[in-house]
Specification:
The complex is a heterodimer of chains A (502) and B (128). Chain A is an alpha/beta fold and 502 residues long. Chain A has 15 helices and 23 strands. Chain A is globular, with a radius of gyration of 24 Å. Chain B has 128 residues and is α/β, with parallel strands linked by helices. Classes of the chains: A alpha/beta (502), B alpha/beta (128). Chains A and B meet through helix 7, helix 8 and helix 11 of A and helix 2, strand 6 and strand 7 of B.
Chain lengths: 502, 128
């Protein structure tokens, strides 16, 4: 592959909040430094907001909602299409900013993050034009009519692993459904959304979409706690998920939660029946744990492989893992970039150690990666494979790094048992040439998304969400619209006569 | 006595810093996505622990909890609360300091494991 080296983007010196259709300085005037994990240097400052800024955003959102709630489906759809067009026109610019902000390689931000942002806006623009409500004639004189209404002003708390894409997953359906939105980006990765608002802000009526930057306990908490918010959407970890649900319970607010997983990736014996293109795809499927440096809620972080093919299959997986090219994240040949922050870097290394302390065998990786040149001070970790058993902590906890734990199974029943022996149920992978297995095994797995003979595909139009402690709600699909709406039932009588009760 | 969780001087220093603004504090070990697998620090009673949680002990006077389902996999490991530089996410109250609590783990020896007191449910412990 020919190399393309993208320029490192230059940013403004600081970014305020985006409230009421314009960038505004934080009320108390405080900003915090944003560093890039590619080399640990400070790249800009963003608002260090608090409850005062949140109240301003709530004022703007409520003011806008008075008219936005009457916006036509056509108006909302066309707005989302125009946002998508502008993102598309700035595809590489936004990809480079996402790489700078998060640390991931430019080949991923171009081909996954930003490409999917465009498609998700277009998807939600499309589905709302095709949707219809429902009408039932309950009897000769009585009609039940269901009309979808937006919930109102919604709060969305965005994670740092796919800063723009996770924002698009949440913003697109909320706007499509007719809500006004207040977004709190992750404090590690606030830049992409600010730059996006510079590009598309003029397309959106003032107050309909607001961005409040800041730290979770200072800005996220007052937003999640506010009685002026009508719904909260969160992607993150379980303790904060519980805390947000506690706040929501006080307001009797609905929530949607996406809280991660420990996804099994199961390789049945038949994958090795032939040495062909499909086997090659299966090997790549096992190495998918390294996508996005492993910082994916659905990271296939447990490989379950049939014991008869373990040696031959893992030999290929290890070789493919060792061939992962690390280096300058702005180089299109670089496959894996930096972990998103120094604390993540240290946490991942601590997990590699606990895995080995528990008796897991290190098959490859296991240490920081040394990157030469200007990115030597970034947070890079070698893709790592540990062999052990499913009761080990490295098989049970989300490391959120390029670390996979592999174990073997003897029977299909054992594979299913191991796959389901987890607190979570977000994703799973099943790889087989057997047409019975490829239906029956996914049905037996307790997870909201089972990839069959593929992994890590996130197309709009296929619902995504968790079972068990992975949360609830289904994103990337029109199902999500109903998480941002209420149902207005009009029960209409066409009978002129009294009931006769009184 | 064998404890399930201890802390480093750096963790104590950060806890002292946080107590100036927040008063008494507590920890709840998280799991899952993003900053999952990190300990979360809150003002005491801001996070409601319940019968699904276990109380592992105090760290410098701050109660440390974990969900009982997660504890099943952690019970054979001793935890040390430490601090790392880095911009964490989540609602943990140390985030604005630019430092992040983190956990180091080591396996209990068999002798230590046998001496451990049983854990209590989160709702059976009322810290002073």
């Amino acid at each position: 592959m020919s190399t393309t080296l993208f320029d490192r983007p230059t940013l403004k010196a600081e970014y305020g909040n985006y409230i009421g259709g314009k960038f505004v300085a934080p009320v108390d005037g405080h900003y915090f430094d944003v560093t890039t994990p590619t080399d640990g240097t400070v790249i800009t400052k963003v608002s260090r907001s608090n409850s005062k800024d949140v109240e301003l955003a709530l004022d703007a959102a409520h003011a806008a909602y008075a008219t936005w709630k009457h916006s036509s489906v056509t108006e909302r759809s066309n707005m989302l299409l125009k946002i998508a067009d502008i993102v598309e026109a700035n595809h590489h610019k936004l990809a480079a900013i996402e790489t700078l902000d998060n640390g991931k390689s430019i080949r991923e931000t171009i081909n996954a993050d930003v490409a999917l942002v465009i498609d998700h806006f277009r998807y939600f623009a499309g589905v709302i034009r095709a949707e219809e409500g429902s009408v039932s004639e309950l009897d000769q004189h009585t009609v039940s009519m269901n009309i979808k209404e937006p919930v109102g002003v919604v709060a969305q708390i965005i994670p740092w692993n796919f800063p723009l894409l996770m924002a698009a997953w949440k913003i697109a359906p909320a706007l499509a459904a007719g809500n006004c939105v207040i977004v709190k980006p992750a404090e590690q990765t606030p830049v992409g959304l600010s730059v996006l608002m510079e590009l598309v802000g003029h397309l959106i009526p003032p107050g309909v979409l607001n961005i409040v930057h800041g730290f979770g306990p200072e800005a996220g908490k007052p937003l999640a706690q506010s009685s002026r918010v009508h719904k909260v959407a969160f992607t993150g970890e379980t303790t904060t998920g519980r805390l947000i649900m506690q706040y929501a319970s006080e307001n009797l607010n609905p929530v949607t939660m996406e809280l991660g997983g420990k996804s099994p990736n199961i390789f049945f014996k038949s994958v090795m029946d032939h040495d062909d293109a499909f086997l090659n795809k299966c090997v790549e499927g096992a190495v998918m744990f390294a996508l996005n440096q492993g910082e994916v809620c659905t990271c296939p972080s447990r490989i379950l492989v049939h014991e008869d093919i373990y040696e031959a299959f893992m030999e290929r997986v290890i070789a493919r893992t060792k061939a992962i090219k690390m280096g300058n994240p702005f180089d299109t040949n670089t496959m894996m970039g930096a972990q998103a922050s120094e604390d993540q870097f240290n946490k991942i290394l601590s997990y590699i150690k606990i895995g080995q302390d528990e008796g897991a065998e290190l098959l490859c990786g296991g240490a920081p990666a040394s990157i030469e040149g200007e990115y030597a001070d970034g947070y890079y970790i070698q893709p790592t494979i540990l062999k052990g058993h499913n009761k080990m902590r490295v098989f049970q906890e989300e490391i959120f790094g390029p670390v996979v734990a592999v174990t073997t199974f003897k029977t299909t029943e054992e594979a299913i048992e191991i796959a389901n022996d987890t607190l979570y149920g977000l994703g799973a992978g099943v790889w087989t040439r057997d047409s019975h297995e490829l239906y029956q095994v996914p049905r037996a797995i307790e997870a909201g998304r089972v990839w069959v003979n593929c992994y890590h595909a996130y197309p709009a139009h296929a619902p995504f969400g968790g079972y068990k402690q992975s949360g609830f709600g289904r994103e990337t699909h029109l199902m999500m619209l109903n998480h941002y709406r209420q149902n207005k039932n009009m029960l209409i009588s066409y009978d002129k006569n009294a009931l006769g009760f009184f | 006595m064998t404890t399930r969780v201890s802390f480093t001087p750096a963790a104590k220093a950060l806890m002292d810093e946080l107590r100036i603004f927040h008063g008494p504090i507590m920890f709840h070990q998280s799991g899952g996505c993003c900053d999952g697998s990190s300990p979360m620090c809150f003002a005491l009673d801001d996070f409601k622990v319940g019968a699904v949680d276990v109380y592992l002990g105090d760290v410098d006077g701050a109660p440390f909890y974990m969900s009982s389902s997660q504890f099943e996999y952690w019970k054979h490991t001793h935890l040390t609360l430490d601090v790392t530089p880095g911009r964490g996410s989540s609602f943990s109250i140390e985030i604005p300091t630019g430092k992040r609590f983190m956990i180091h783990s080591r396996l209990f020896t068999e002798e230590e494991f046998n001496q451990l007191p049983p854990v209590r449910k989160g709702n059976q412990h009322s810290p002073a």
